[in-house]
Write a structure and sequence with these properties.
Radius of gyration of chain B: 12 Å
Number of strands of chain A: 19
Oligomer: heterodimer
Distance between the termini of chain A: 12 Å
Number of domains of chain B: 1
Number of strands of chain B: 5
Order of helices and strands of chain B: EHEHEHEEH
Number of helices of chain B: 4
CATH superfamily of chain B: Glutaredoxin
Low-confidence stretches of chain A: none
Strand order of the largest sheet of chain B: 1-3-2-4-5
CATH architecture of the largest domain in chain A: 3-Layer(bba) Sandwich
Low-confidence stretches of chain B: none
Distance between the termini of chain B: 17 Å
Amino acid sequence: MQLKRAINFFELWEMTGVVTMNNYDVIIVGAGPAGLTAALFNARSKLKTLCIDEIGNGGQAAITDLIENYPGFPEGITGSKLTIKMAEQVERFGAEKITEKVQKLKLEEEYRVVVTNQSKYRAKAVIIASGASPRMLGCPGEIDFRGRGVSYCATCDGAFYEGSNILVIGGGNAAVEEAVYLTKFADKVTLVHRRQELRAAKVAQERAFTNPKIDIIWDSVVEKISGNSSVEKVILKNVRSGERREMFVDGVFVYAGLEPNSAWVKGVVRLDEKGNILTDENMCTNIKGVYAAGDVRRKLLRQVLTAASDGAIAAFHAERYIESQFYGS
Amino acid sequence: MIEVNKDNFEQEVINSNKPVIVDFWGPSCQPCLELLPQVEKLSEAYKDKVKLVKVNSAGNRRLCIKLRVMGLPSFLAFKNGKEVKRISGQDLTIKEIEELIKSIA
């Protein structure tokens, strides 16, 4: 592939030493399961591949306690172990990895440029796998008590709540699974959900229902979190009756859904009203040479497995695109 | 970076002549483990101005409670033995940590 290509204008310019720009075949933004899988596929195809993540490896999966629905691990595997293995596999095939914060995606003729807080990187194709972040509750006290009783990561902070009384907010898989995990430490875990039924998988629901340490409060939202040096109480509001109640708790774990990390491509790539990137079934966005994979996409099933699958599909089509666009006859 | 615990906290942090940043981490906190090697590098780069130390929260629960650290990773900045600033959360970036170091350097 390298032999066939003609030297393009940018490369010629750089050879003169006038500018330096870091050039790649593919840039993958995000090193969660989607990004790591895309990096694995592209690096195995001998494409010059760069993977950029602002934190490190693993994304949300890295802070998940136990993953039981990723095939091949009959006993389940912790999210941190699984994503470390994924990262090792990527390293073996030689993808480059850097820790920088992406700020912008630019289109320069047939090239795609990713601007970070430190540099600029240019590639023939870009795969956006920047994932999603926990949605905040947006109630008073949430930000003030972050790290002092408000948490978004049970595996990070659970152990601080030995013998205590905590709330978990949400009704999806993450909320219910992490509520069960937190009973390892806490004396009492109260799940607060704004609806009347949980959305989590049935297995997880059963574990929550049969766990003597877990109580569930339905139809309710957190209106306020307060305390002195750490969280002491919350005000819950029943969304049906409007009734409010005060509860004394030591901690609040928030699993109230996700926000796609797509602000940095807004105006460049087409998003839906919630900020999810729109793609076709080949993970192509509306921009040629730009793909999206994993939780940042509009999709229904957000799992490690489907993120990995998206990553593979995006990598495959990015490679085909590069071949036809840059090396085709 | 030296490991600090309840026994040497006073000596290494409170009585330090230089400003100190304490990195609270834990073995099951993946974001903490991702950050640690990068924080080690910053520790080397800023060693003339700021001292960086780390506390394994798993073996130092009491120290954490005393300092009201209840979330990981957390970075506490001390100047003249007093806490002047802290940042916390699993989405902390190395850039934010470097800014914290610069702010007390």
